[in-house]
Amino acid sequence: MGMCLFALANTAWPQQEHSVPQALPARPIHIVRMTVNPEALKPNAPIPLAPAAHLDYYGGPVVSNLQVVVVFWGSGVSSVVTAGIGGFFQGITDSTYFDLLSEYTTNVTPIGGGAGTNQSIGRGSYGGEFTISPSVCNVTPCVVTDAQVQAEVLSQINAAHLPTPALDSNGKVNSLYMIYFPPDVTIDLGSSVSCVQFCAYHGTTSNTFNSKNLAYGVMPDFGAPSGCSVGCGGGTEFQNITSVSSHEMAETVTDIDVGIATVFGPPLAWYDANSNDQDGGGEIGDICNAQQSAVTTPNGTYTVQQIWSNQSGACVSIGSHPTFQLTAPNSATSGTSFNFTVTAENPVGSSTDISFAGTVHFTSSDPQAILPADFTFTPSDQGTQGFGATLKTTGAQTIIATDTVNNGVKGTATVNVGNGILGALTFTPTALTFGSYATGTTSAAKKVTLTNLAGGTVTISSIAITGTNPGDFSKTTTCGGTLLVNKSCTVSVTFSPGALGARSATLVITDDASNSPQQVPLSGKGVPQLTLTPSSLTFIGTTVSQTSAAKIIKVKNNLKTMLNFSGTPFTFTGADPGDFSESATTCGGTLAAGQTCTVSITFTPTAKGTRTAALNVSDSASPSPQTAKLSGTGK
Question: Given this model, what pLDDT does residue 520 score?
Fold first, then answer.
């Protein structure tokens, strides 16, 4: 049987040949390991990077919407735990921290092929706390084995002392039974002992309840003088308890059946099998063992352990989360209601987060908008819900949907509100960027497509180019004086920079649609037809009549066509032209479009002091010649 521990172990994970599932090691490590350096656990301590970590999906289930059931093993559990652990789980299952788990959806192809379980991971809930009277290890000090823990959980459920497991819509287990032990109880895993080798672990029962293997977590007492009071965190007893609890919670969500997995394949879910436990391999929490952060939840601020994010490539406590996709009509009539849809999307792959469970709040740029009340998604909504709204202020207005716990979970729709006669004329793209072109040349055309979704024929009164540099842009169009409903036309624009540097203008379409005028920003950059790099050379002090080492100037053709050099392309002018000379060149009679050649210059001073000249390059580019400044010192 496998389970997730925090332990000091040197189990090596073999490299995978994914065509045939390989056996898991005899004792896979998914425990919360004890640490030999408690200082490393303190908040703000330097955080080591996990080496080459990456979680792969092996085809097993995850937990769609976790329900945490807290179990106290008898009445002697520390009041530090009993007073606060319920509030912790209420807050942390509805938090930005829990949202991180949403990137580990299973609608992906598993390692080795086949089909995954096609689950999303949404927020969880707190299923209450229960004090049991165990049939074993009920008088301390005592030792309890993992097999006895499993049997006790199943027995207590069968006796209705613990709630039966919650299931998702596909019949997969959502519940996690988190068991907290009193002082002087030792949990024996055979080769590992609580508060000696490990701080905690999670596992999966070998036997079943109603044909379901159940998830459970084991949390020894962390109070002094227990060995877990050191080596299991750098904070207070409660901070260390919540940190380790979050580790096991996150691992259960992303790999619930690890305890019954025997190969690197189903029912194993998200797992790093290519590095050993000592350097950070294993499950989502193992990679980031002992790296703590404070996270604010609706119930308060708690200490958690960071968890591994494939998307961020780091151990994090806040990061990935779902987003909202709003689907609304392009246009609406002022004062008339319309329908729109909000869909929660997973942070990886943009698939629908069918397990999303959060509350959405609506705002609008329209101060007169009539918007839906806050709505709380449940898993039965499958991540999608329809709403109605009314906008009253004409023009382009937005509707914004934002999660009330995590304001990073949001989405926006833009609706063009008309006066009841015509709606909006859409145009794509909304800006044209041409990049760099040599002065005196013309770019290829870029197109703006106008589409009439305004509900009636649109009359176009003008199409013009205005702004800072309108003469640098030219247009042609297929648009006439009118554009019929549901039809499109195009405006083609070219760029011919009239000067160096950034150039800009605006394409303006004026019509009787509700969002008139439509404005499309135009931008580009003018560059010289031929450039010399660098534009100046300085030679250090050189003895009179001695020749310096050569320095190179690059000559680049920025035109889209070949240019020609004159018969003697490189000449020297200025105060001391005889002190500088061309020693070598790769430039021939021509230079192809976009290509570069070089000229090497040497300095032979004929007198002491500052010597200056200019290199002139004569060619068919305009303007010509191009010059580079030369200077040196004779000594």
Answer: 96
Report the alpha-carbon distance of residue 27 to residue 201 in Å, rounded.
13
Give the pair of three-digit tokens for residue 437: 């072109």
Rounded CA separation 148/121 (Å): 31
* β partners of residue 187: 144
**CA distance linking residue 356 with residue 120, whole number of Å:** 8
Between CA 418 and CA 122 the distance in angstroms is: 38
Q: Reply yes or no on whether the pLDDT at 13 is more than 90.
A: no
E strand or H helix at 633, and its extent?
A: strand 626-634
Instruction: Kindly report the backbone phi and psi dihedral angles of residue 577, in degrees, each rounded to the nearest multiple of 5, phi listed first.
Output: -60, -30
The 8-class DSSP code of residue 228 comes to G
SS3 category, 144: strand
- pLDDT tens string 120-142: 999 999 999 999 999 999 999 99
* The total number of residues written for the chain in this structure: 635
Six-digit token string for 325: 């996709």
Residue 609: CB atoms within 10 A of its CB come to 11
Number of helices and strands (H, E) in the chain?
Answer: 4, 41
The per-residue DSSP string of 556-576 comes to: EE-SSS-EEEEEEEEEEESS-
pTM of the model: 0.65
- Quote the CA–CA distance of 195 and 225 in Å, as a whole number: 10
Query: What are the structural domains, with CATH classification, of the chain?
Result: 56-316 (no CATH), 323-418 (2.60.40.3170), 425-527 (2.60.40.10), 530-634 (2.60.40.10)
DSSP 620: S
